[in-house]
Structure formats: structure tokens, C-alpha cells
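Example for tutorial group B:
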């Protein structure tokens, strides 16, 4: 795993985002996951799973759904540093991903099966232990192959279990899991575009 693409896209003299450090952790430590609500040029949710010292990352325009009949498009994006899982704030306008970032959910995840095989084969099964997201999920690739320069498309799907539901988790639990703030409150506190952020709240 490499953070070369992450590093190349960003100017750390201007952006407060974490620097590109690969963090290999001890085997016994739990794997982290994070979902960030990101009001950039378009609102989306960044879904990240810690693996091999980085956060595997997907951009999900509509965010996760608890309804097993709903498949949410998830575009693979560049790996992010593990420290990104602690980032909430404002990326300055004009920078890559410029806009307001909220820690929408976080916790730990557990693979269901072999992760590297799943990534190669295009079907990753796992459970999430977050504050908002729980239970068993699948990420299924629909387009593109690993190592291709073209972006891969995946679908995030909730498995049927006791955490499946038809409630709109994005609308019902819109605030930061870290600070309880709305996007507009984060933007106001950190020098972001409050109007843009408020529209996404
Ligand atoms: Mn993003």
C-alpha cells in the first residue's frame, strides 16, 4: 500500500489534512473504520476501512443505506493515511477536496473472510462496529480492476441482519459523531463556507 497518490494531490502547507504516513500497527490492534461527510463540490460520504497501514477509501454520493434492497454506488478513491480517521475540519477552497469534512461515524471493523482475496475478487464482506453503522455489509465491485488507472466502481450493500432497517440514517443522524456539530457549525468554527455547508445539513 502506498500513499503516493494521496500525497501528490495535496499541498500540506495549505491544507490541514494529515500528512501521508503509512502506519503499520500491531496485529492485535483492532482495525478502524470511519465515514466522513464531505461537502466539497458535491456532498458525499467518504467510507474508509483500515488495512495494511492505510485507509482503503470509497466516495459514496448518497451515503450508506441500512436497507438491504438499496445498493449505494461507491467510487474507489486513493488510499488515505490512518490518521485521516481523526480529521474533521475545513479543506481550503482551491485545494483538492476543498470544503467541510465531518466525522459522521467511526469505530472498528472486522473482515468476514480474506480481505486481500476479496479486494482482488471484487467482493469484500465485513462487519462494522460504529456509533451509527452496525452489523454485516458487503462491498461489491461492478467496474474496473485493481491496478487499472481507471477508477473502480463498487456497491455498498447492507446484509440482512438485526441492524438492517428502512430508516434514513443520514437524515436521522446528521451530526458529527466526534463533536455533535453540524456541517455548518464546523464550517463556521474552522473558517469554511457556512452557506454551502448549511445546504448539506
Ligand atoms: Mn471526499
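The residue assignment follows.
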Amino acid at each position: 500500500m502506498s500513499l503516493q497518490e494521496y500525497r501528490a494531490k495535496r499541498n500540506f502547507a495549505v491544507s490541514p489534512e494529515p500528512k501521508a504516513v503509512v502506519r503499520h500497527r500491531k496485529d492485535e490492534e483492532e482495525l478502524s473504520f470511519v465515514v466522513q461527510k464531505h461537502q466539497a463540490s458535491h456532498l458525499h460520504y467518504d467510507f474508509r476501512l483500515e488495512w495494511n497501514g492505510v485507509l482503503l477509501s470509497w466516495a459514496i454520493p448518497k451515503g450508506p443505506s441500512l436497507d438491504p434492497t438499496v445498493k449505494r454506488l461507491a467510487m474507489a478513491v486513493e488510499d488515505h493515511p490512518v490518521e485521516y480517521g481523526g480529521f474533521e475540519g475545513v479543506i481550503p477552497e482551491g485545494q483538492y477536496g476543498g470544503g467541510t469534512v465531518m466525522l459522521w461515524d467511526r469505530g472498528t471493523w472486522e473482515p468476514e473472510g480474506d480481505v486481500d482475496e476479496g479486494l482482488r475478487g471484487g467482493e469484500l464482506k465485513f462487519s462494522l462496529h460504529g456509533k451509527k453503522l452496525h452489523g454485516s455489509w458487503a462491498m461489491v465491485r461492478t467496474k474496473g480492476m485493481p491496478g487499472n488507472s481507471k477508477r473502480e466502481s463498487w456497491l455498498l450493500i447492507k446484509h440482512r441482519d438485526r441492524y438492517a432497517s428502512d430508516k434514513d440514517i443520514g437524515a436521522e443522524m446528521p451530526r458529527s459523531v466526534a463533536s455533535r456539530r453540524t456541517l455548518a457549525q464546523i464550517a463556521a468554527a474552522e473558517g469554511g463556507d457556512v452557506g454551502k455547508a448549511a445546504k448539506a445539513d
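The longest helix spans residues 183-190. Compare this with the pattern of hydrophobic and polar residues in the output above.
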